[in-house]
Amino acid sequence: MKIVVAVKRVIDYNVKIRVKPDNSDVDLTNVKMAMNPFCEIAVEEAVRLQEKGVASEIVAVTVGPKAAQEQLRTALALGADRAIHVETDERVESLGAAKALAKVVEAEQPGLVILGKQAIDTDNNQAGQMLAALTGLPQGTFASEVAVEGGKLQVTREIDGGLQTIELTLPAIVTTDLRLNEPRYAKLPDIMKAKKKPMDVKSPSDLGVEVASKVKLLKVEPPAKRQGGIKVGSVDELVDKLKNEAKVL
Amino acid sequence: MSILVLAEHHDGALAGATAHVVAAAQAIGGDIDVLVAGENVAAVAEAAAKLDGVAKVRLADNAAYAHLLAEPTAALIAELAGDYSHVLAAASTTGKNVLPRVAALKDVSQISEIIAVESPDTFKRPIYAGNAIATVQSEDALKVITVRPTGFDACPDRGSEGGSASVEAVEFVADNAQSTFIKEALAQSDRPELGAAKVVISGGRGMGSGENFTLLEGIADKLGAAIGASRAAVDAGFVPNDMQVGQTGKIVAPELYIAVGISGAIQHLAGMKDSKVIVAINKDEEAPIFQVADYGLVADLFEALPELEQTL
Ligand SMILES: Cc1cc2nc3c(=O)[nH]c(=O)nc-3n(C[C@H](O)[C@H](O)[C@H](O)COP(=O)(O)OP(=O)(O)OC[C@H]3O[C@@H](n4cnc5c(N)ncnc54)[C@H](O)[C@@H]3O)c2cc1C
Ligand SMILES: Nc1ncnc2c1ncn2[C@@H]1O[C@H](COP(=O)(O)O)[C@@H](O)[C@H]1O
């Protein structure tokens, strides 16, 4: 079974972001970028399925600027066999990405597509569900466990009340939650080898899709700052403050 | 304008989140219908009909919608969406699962987790784990939106004299041969729901083990609090995933949030920094959690917690 994995280039999760002084967006100049953490989990799951003999080939895909090839190379170093870069400098959000991914899925005919549950820049949590709708495939979102059994896919999902298990026909779309696996690090020899793996570059118009977001970003502001608090010296003082100053007890 | 709100329900009862989503719909303005989809959910429809400002409840009570699986539920909403300018749902795991699918079926964008309504097409929403607030405008004819419940005060019930909105059955039944419900393992707890509790006390990696969470339970009992956790505490297996507070867990905004043995990573702060009063108990005085805490206590939690329980 072929697996397609979608990876997005985003700001590194450790970086403290800054809003541009003109409030047009977040400032990404000279900021460390990385693969979205949920996409790392997606790549890892694909690699594990290949190690188990379930997957025969892994194709990593990204939609984004030239620099996003870095994240595709990371996916290749982690074990993807080849990569597809849908190159664009437009501001792409989930729907545009899902439209491009749908064309890739149509061409590649994978048995399984794995995406992250959310990109940590927009925090959208949409693309997998949208891709499922566009391809007419079933979806297993927020997965903490997946298993292919008897030609079907069992997905355990992290839901508000606990865990839910569903069964999907294949092909299917899965989005990863944090506890699906713990991604490995790429080893140096694999990083070297990844440089030679094939990468196909296409434009959105090659695929016949428009990817630019139709949601206008009018303004980006820093959140309201919390007033700095105080340190209390003892549990008694804490309880006294909560009762008499904050009046929440 | 006319707005369709997807009702959130659990165990045959209307969930509190729905009243917050109806409040967001009121801020947009226009006629508000509530869609109750599920199996054996007539009581949910009755409760939804009592929410202030609801014009009509549309009830899709059918085995096809049991557990609100994404494929049939999205097909149902897409079928009804032609009557509306906006479709809203709570940013719960149900809303997040279903609404993007609806949006793509209708070839429109989806706007996630709004916290404020500027106008019927312009909304505020947090991005980058809440470290920035974006104002976004949708030009789509149909706006598909998930609502962060803590961003809107719940709309009231109509009260005993207020009567009820009409309940109308929806005949459409979606076919679904693609997904099947197998089982659910749901946390059982007598405590208030994390998202709705007035007081939340959360433990992090510093708790050391799952057993040590009993130290929080005594305090939670006294305060009527819900218990939460950091991702590290969930990943370490101390507590189940549904207790995770943060960017990728639950978003809470109680009157009082007590963080115990939690360092205060931005991903955790994203889930709790809109709480009214924040208390942090941590033995490391440099822990970033103290930067957002109104009251910080530098102490070993194994000493501070028993003392706190006694003092309350
Ligand atoms: C994509 C992504 C999403 C994430 N989503 C979330 C999320 O939704 N929610 C979330 O919480 N995290 C999330 N994280 C993880 C986050 O980055 C942190 O790793 C996590 O919040 C740390 O948890 P912690 O504070 O419990 O652990 P630590 O950072 O290890 O902190 C433990 C704290 O306990 C204190 N301590 C230890 N012993 C004691 C003692 N005896 N008494 C008092 N204090 C003590 C220590 O001083 C320390 O400050 C996410 C990360 C990523 C990459
Ligand atoms: N531009 C993109 N290129 C490739 N994959 C993407 C892109 N945007 C989103 N995705 C995938 O969809 C997941 C969820 O993103 P989102 O729904 O946008 O929060 C990500 O973790 C990726 O797997």
Describe the model.
- The complex is a heterodimer of chains A (249) and B (312).
- Chain A is of the alpha/beta class.
- Chain A has a single domain, classed as Rossmann fold.
- Helix content of chain A is 28%, strand content 31%.
- Chain A contains 7 helices and 13 strands.
- Chain A has a 9-stranded mixed sheet with strand order 9-8-7-10-6-1-4-5-11, with helices on both faces.
- In chain A, strand 8 and strand 9 form a beta hairpin.
- By secondary structure, chain B is of the alpha/beta class.
- In chain B, 24% of the residues lie in helices and 30% in strands.
- Chain B has a 7-stranded parallel sheet, with helices on both faces. A 5-stranded parallel sheet of chain B has the order 15-14-16-17-18.
- Strand 9 of chain A pairs antiparallel with strand 13 of chain B.
- Bound molecules: flavin-adenine dinucleotide (FAD) and adenosine monophosphate (AMP).
- Flavin-adenine dinucleotide (FAD) sits at the interface of chains B and A.
- Chain B: This is Electron transfer flavoprotein subunit alpha/FixB family protein.
- Chain B: InterPro entries: DHS-like_NAD/FAD-binding_dom, ETF_a/b_N, ETF_a/FixB, ETF_alpha_N, ETF_asu_C, ETF_asu_C_CS, Rossmann-like_a/b/a_fold.
- Chain B: Keywords: Electron transport, FAD, Flavoprotein, Transport.
- Chain B: Belongs to the ETF alpha-subunit/FixB family.
- Chain B: It comes from Billgrantia campisalis.
- Chain A: This is Electron transfer flavoprotein subunit beta.
